[in-house]
Design goal:
Structural class: alpha+beta
Radius of gyration: 28 Å
Strand order of the largest sheet: 1-5-6-11-10-9-7-8
Shape: elongated
Helix content: 25-40%
Number of strands: 16
Number of helices: 16
Strand content: 15-25%
Bound molecules: adenosine monophosphate
Largest sheet: 8 strands, mixed
């Protein structure tokens, strides 16, 4: 007996018609980026593991525990990409894109892989659209990135997306803050694992949801009180631009992100209808990442929006999103000669930009009309032997049920006129 297969745990198949919403979301995320001067970039699905495991900075679960890593037959250590930014920065450095006009603005769309515990809205294979702007340290660019994200959710018709904003400081003030935080956390009554976490990534402890931890970290120092003058000035300017752009946000001094490379401006878009996996997108500035992957000093800011979760958010708010690719005209041939006549008609309609399909499989009239109804088309073209003899096709309005014969040589024009 042959084994039957199902998709691996934590993954799902995207099937029509729901897949249309997915495509429409992707398009809604990409279009504003193109208009804002972002060029499309595609990097490989896998990269050298060391690109993600840089061995500097803080360690996060995404990189230390959740990567799909493997050794190839040739002995290379590779990982499926858990996020998009590292690969993009690697490509910018490798191809010296920074030697041209700055900022280098790029957008991407793809699949990402994390070995996470699957739950509603959290998958092991998921999809993001991302934007990155590199080479210019300008607070107005942070504001552009953030506001593009906010605009995308607004344009999709979502009303329950909130923007959480924070600054994580830079190489000057972050270590000072980190030391203060470690000192504070070390004095608390915490279990061994959390104590270990203090050494690896103390900011993460602030994000711990367990009540016994929450109760103790209420008075922990926050980054906002420790920002150096440059970081403070930068953050003030970002907020000023955002206000000018009409973006609203919530100051979130404890916002911590799942990746280690963020500096200064950091943000997350959350949706209130999604339960525990509420983040629909997020990003921030990552000055220093380029140097970490062997490149020149190259400041950067960007975000990644989760396509899967944005589709869930639309569902949660009952927002219908139309992708438009549905069938408009359905052709029903009754007999071989009628099929010979209608096959080219369908092709001609498609060439004219009409979404058209045909009842394949020589079904009888009843079955074929059922297929026509299911297709979502508004018009059916029915041709039988007698119609062929008379040189006509029956054009049926599937909404009203009304039907009239149309001369075959006027068929394409008539249909087009009816649709537009
Ligand atoms: P991150 O790179 O962790 O900041 O993720 C950016 C966005 O990608 C999140 O806000 C989510 O919308 C989405 N995302 C991250 N991880 C997953 C996952 N395991 N399953 C589905 N979506 C995810």
């Amino acid at each position: 007996m042959t084994a039957t297969f199902s998709a691996p745990k934590g993954t799902y198949d995207l099937l029509p018609p729901e897949s249309e919403a997915f495509l429409a979301v992707r398009e809604a995320m990409a279009a504003p980026l193109r208009r804002a001067g972002y060029g499309y970039i595609e990097t490989p699905t896998f990269e050298h593991t060391a690109l993600f495991e840089r061995g500097v900075g803080e360690s996060t679960d995404v990189v230390s525990k959740e990567m799909y890593s493997f050794t190839t037959r040739g002995g290379d250590n590779l990982s499926l990409k858990p996020e998009g930014t590292a690969g993009v920065v690697r490509a910018v450095v490798q191809h010296r894109l920074y030697a041209g006009q700055l900022p280098v603005k790029l957008w991407y769309s793809g699949s990402y892989y994390r070995y996470e515990r699957p739950q509603a809205g959290r998958y092991r294979h998921f999809s993001q659209v991302g934007a990155e702007a590199l080479g210019v340290d300008d607070p107005a660019l942070d504001a552009e990135i953030v506001s593009l994200g906010a605009q995308i959710y607004r344009d999709l018709g979502l009303t329950q997306v909130r923007l959480l904003l924070n600054s994580l400081g830079d190489a000057e003030c972050r270590p000072v803050y980190r030391a203060r935080l470690v000192e504070f956390l070390s004095g608390l009554d915490l279990d061994a694992e959390t104590r270990k976490r203090i050494e690896i990534n103390p900011l993460r402890v602030l994000d711990d949801k367990r009540p016994e931890v929450v109760a103790q970290v209420g008075d922990a120092p926050v980054m906002a009180d420790s920002l150096c003058d440059d970081c403070k000035a930068h953050y003030d300017l970002v907020r000023g631009y955002l206000a000018d752009l009409g973006v609203t946000w919530e100051e979130t001094p404890r916002l911590v992100r799942g990746l280690d490379y963020y500096t200064r401006t950091t943000f997350e878009f959350v949706h209130d209808g999604l339960g525990s996996q509420s983040a629909v997108g997020g990003g921030g500035r990552y000055d220093g990442l380029s140097e970490q992957v062997g490149g020149p000093q190259l400041p950067g800011v960007g975000w990644a929006l989760g396509v899967d979760r944005t589709v869930l958010a639309l569902k949660a708010e009952s927002v219908e999103i139309t992708a438009g690719a549905g069938c408009e005209v359905f052709a029903v041939p009754l007999g071989a000669a009628a099929k010979q006549c209608l096959v080219p008609v369908v092709a001609d309609l498609r060439r004219r930009g009409v979404a058209a399909d045909l009842a394949y499989g020589d079904r009888g009239l009843k079955g074929a009309m059922k297929a026509a109804d299911r297709s979502g088309a508004s018009i059916a073209i029915v041709v039988g032997e007698r119609d062929l003899e008379a040189g006509v096709a029956q054009v049926k309005d599937l909404g009203t049920g009304g039907q009239e014969p149309v001369a075959l040589d006027e068929l394409l024009e008539t249909i087009e006129k009816r649709l537009r």
